[in-house]
Amino acid sequence: MSRYQDLAAQTERLIADGLLRPGDRLPSVRQACRSHDVSPVTVTQAYYLLESRGLIEARPKSGYFVRARLGQRLPEPEMRRPLGDSTQLEVSDFIFRILESVKDPSVVPLGSSFPSPYLFPLDKLGRFLATAARKLDPLATVTDLPPGNEELRRQIALRYLAHGANVAPQEIVVTSGAMEGLNLCLQAVTRPGDLIAIESPTFYAGLQASERLGLKVIEIPTHPREGVSLPALDEALRQHPVKACLFMLNFANPQGSLVPDAHKKALLELLQRHDVPLIEDDVYAELYFGQQAPLCSKAVDEAGLVMHVSSFSKCLAPGYRIGWVAAGRYAQAIQRQKLSTSLATTVPVQIALADYLKHGGYENHLRHLRRTLAQREAAFTAAVESHFPAGTRLARPQGGYFLWLELPPGVDALRLHRQALACGISTAPGPIFSAKREFAHSLRLNFGHPDTEAQQAAIATLGQLVAAQL
Ligand SMILES: Cc1ncc(COP(=O)(O)O)c(C=O)c1O
Questions:
Q1: What is the model's pLDDT at position 460?
Q2: Torsion of CA 117, 118, 123, 128, to 10 degrees
Q3: Pocket lining for ligand 1, CB < 6 angstroms
Q4: In a mutational test of the pocket of ligand 1, which residue from 203, 350, 445 has the highest number of ligand atoms less than 8 Å from its CB?
Q5: Distance (Å, whole) CA 35 – CA 50
Q6: Are 25 and 62 contacting, i.e. CB atoms less than 8 angstroms apart?
C-alpha cells in the first residue's frame, strides 16, 4: 500500500469508528503533512481518494469535511474456502441461461458485464475508423497478419513502458478482444484433462473457456479486497499438477479486488518456484480510482511467466473487439494458435485504434472515465447502504465498475435474480462465478451506468426483495 492509500485508510477508519463524524472538518493539508510526516502531494492524493469514494467533500475555501451518510456502513464479506479439490466443469449452459437477460435493453442492467457505452468517445473513434478504412494500404491485409498491426503493437508497448514494464512490440499478439487472448493462452499451455488454478469467485467466461477446452479447475480462496490467497495457492501448487493460473490482479471481476504490490511480487516468486505460468486477465487495469495505476505484473515478471491479457473493450472501444496478449516466451505459440483459429484481427480497426492512441487524446479520456466511475461507485454504494437490510456485506472496489455483495444468510441470489428480472432488473448472481455454484448468497452489481431515477428505483426494489426473503 502506498503512503497516500495508507493515510486514506487511516482516515477512513476514523470515520468508520465514529471519531470523525459527518460535518467534521478534516485537518488542513498543512496540518496533516506535519502530523503524518508526509508531503502535501500525499495528503492531497489521500483526500482525493476519500472524496472519490464519497466519504469526504471539498467545500470552497473551507477545506475537506466528512460527508453525511444516508445509510449504514456495511461490513466487508469474508474470504470463502471453496469446497473440495479440482472440478470437472459443467457450468456453461447454466451461465448462458442466467445471462440471457443482459441483452434486453429495456432491463435495468445491474447484471451486465459492460459499462455504459456512452462513457466512450465513440464519435471520435468512428472518425478514426473512417479514415483508416479510406486510406487502407491493400498490402496491410498481409503485413498486419498475426502478431498484428505494427504501430498498434508499438503504441501498446509504449503504454507498458509508461507503467514501468519493458515489453517489446514483438512479444505482443493482437487478438479479437481479451476473450480470444485468454482462450489462446489456455490453449498454448494446456491439453484437455489438464488442471488450472482459478480464483474463487472467478469471471464466469474463464469457466466457460476452460469447460470448452476440457480443463479441470482448482478454485483458490480469494479475498474480496486483496485477491488470491497465497498460502492456499502454495498448498494447491504443492499438491496438484497445476499447468497454469488464470487470475485477475487488478479490480477483479466479480469482487473488484486489487492485489497489493507486495502480494503481486510474492505471487510471481511463488509461481517461479513452481515454474507455473500466470495467465493474467487485466482488462480493468486502466480503471483505477486513485492517482496511480496499479503495479503492472509485467514490470516485476523476472522469469517471463506472465501472459498478460488485456483489451480496449472496457476502457476505450467496446465493440471494436481489439485485445492483446503480452506473451513473453509464449508469444510464438500464441501467434500460431491465433493463425490457426481466427487467422487475423480486423485490419482497419487495428489501424484506427493505433491512430487514436497516437493522436486521439487517450489520457484525457481515461482521466474523465476514471473520475466518472469513482463518482458512480460512491453514489451506488451509498444507495445500496441505505436500501439493503442489515446483514448485507459489501467490498468497496478501488477501480472497475463492479460491486460485490454478500447478502444476509438465507437469501438465495438465484431466486433474487428471477424475482428482480420479473421487475425489469438484471443481476449477476454469485453461483455463476463458481465452478461448484457456490456463493449462493452473493451478487455482483454493475455501477458503470448512469445514476438515473430508474437505477435508484432498481436498487431500492432489490433491497426490498432481499428483505422480503429474510
Ligand atoms: C474479466 C473480464 N475478462 C475479459 C472480458 C472480455 O473482454 P473482451 O470484451 O475484450 O473480449 C470481460 C468482459 O466482460 C471481463 O469482464
A1: 97
A2: -40
A3: 113, 177-179, 203, 248, 253, 281, 283, 311, 313, 323
A4: 203
A5: 18
A6: yes
Q: Examine the pLDDT at 13 and tell me if it is beyond 80.
A: yes
- For ligand 1, atom 1: residue with the closest CA: 253
Domains of the chain: 3-66 (1.10.10.10), 89-118+364-469 (3.90.1150.10), 121-362 (3.40.640.10)
Residue 387 contacts residue 459 (beta carbons within 8 Å):
yes
Predicted confidence at residue 339, as pLDDT, reads: 95
Closest CA to 264 of 212, 288, 299: 299
Please report, rounded to a whole number, the percentage of residues in the chain having pLDDT higher than 70: 99
323 CA to middle of ligand 1, Å? Answer: 9
CA 304, chain centre distance (Å): 23
Angstrom CA distances, 353 to 1, 146, 163, 453, stand at 34, 16, 19, 35
Residue type present at position 295: L
Dihedral, CA atoms, 275, 193, 325, 182, nearest 10 degrees? -130
Name 258's bridge partners. 250
Q: Which pLDDT does position 69 carry in this prediction?
A: 66
Instruction: List pLDDT tens digits, range 412-434.
Output: 999 999 999 999 999 999 999 99
Tell whether the model's pLDDT for residue 164 goes beyond 80. Answer: yes
How far is the C-alpha of 138 from the C-alpha of 366, rounded, in Å?
33
For residue 190, CA distances in Å to 24, 85, 86, 213 come to 57, 19, 16, 9
Task: Identify which of 250, 283, 324, 342 to mutate to test ligand 1's pocket (most ligand atoms within 8 A of the CB).
Answer: 283
CA 375 distance to own-chain centroid: 17
Contact present, 190 and 244 (Cβ < 8 Å): yes
